[in-house]
Amino acid sequence: MGTAERRRASGDGAGAHVTVQQRSLEAPDRDIPADAYEAVGGAGQVQARPLWVEEPARRRRMPDPVRTAAVRAVIIIAVTMIQAMVAFFCTMAGSWLAFPMVISSVVSTVVATWGALDVWVTRQVWNQRNGVVSTPSSTARALRRERRRARRQARAAERAQERIRGQGGAGRLSHS
């Protein structure tokens, strides 16, 4: 993605007023291409363009519980892989540590599998509790809309009942 596309994608208009001018001048450094520089003003002032341009995220951020479970799983899996390597090298070297390391690697593999499943289960539970809001035809969104509509109707009916009770018989033809 070039600079022009990035500026168009950002949508904030911050970079829209700057125009990229093609120049035949050679860049001051050999490893920086000539088009990496933009002219500012007309008096030969040259200024480098910014190192990065903020772009909007393509995907939504993971929910906190899911992210926590994912970080925990990655750490556990990394430790398991290190243990497996140490067990392999101890076995190849004929060290007395080989057997305990192999046993701990097996246990650690079970724990790593649990960690990966924990991420999946946590994500499913979060989606079930909070609803999937990423698609317009989300079932959870439709259910929430129905519940809101029912609550509004119940409140309106309750207010109507309060108005009737608040009148205290005024407007009735007979008292029984």
Structure description:
- The protein is mainly alpha-helical and 176 residues long.
- It has helices spanning 3-10, 64-93, 98-130, 139-167, and strands spanning 37-39, 46-48.
- Strands 1-2 form a two-stranded antiparallel sheet.
- Helix 2 (64-93) runs antiparallel to helix 3.
- The chain is flat and about 105 Å long.
- Residues 13-24 have low confidence and may be disordered.
Give a quick summary of the entry:
By secondary structure, this protein is mostly helical. The chain is built from four helices and two strands.
Write the layout of secondary structure elements.
Blueprint (H helix, E strand, L loop, with lengths): L2 H8 L26 E3 L6 E3 L15 H30 L4 H33 L8 H29 L9
Antiparallel strand pairs: 1-2
Helix pairs in contact: 2-3
Backbone shape: flat
N/C terminus separation = 81 Å
* Alpha carbon gyration radius: 33 Å
How many H/I helices?
A: 4
**Mean pLDDT, all residues:** 78
- SSE ordering: HEEHHH
- For the biggest β-sheet, the strand order reads 1-2
Largest sheet: 2 strands, antiparallel
Q: Approximately what portion of the residues adopt beta-strand conformation?
A: under 5%
Low-confidence stretches: 13-24
Helix percent reads 55-70%
Total beta-strand segments: 2
Structural class: mainly alpha
Record keyword descriptors for this entry:
mainly alpha; 176 residues; two-stranded antiparallel sheet
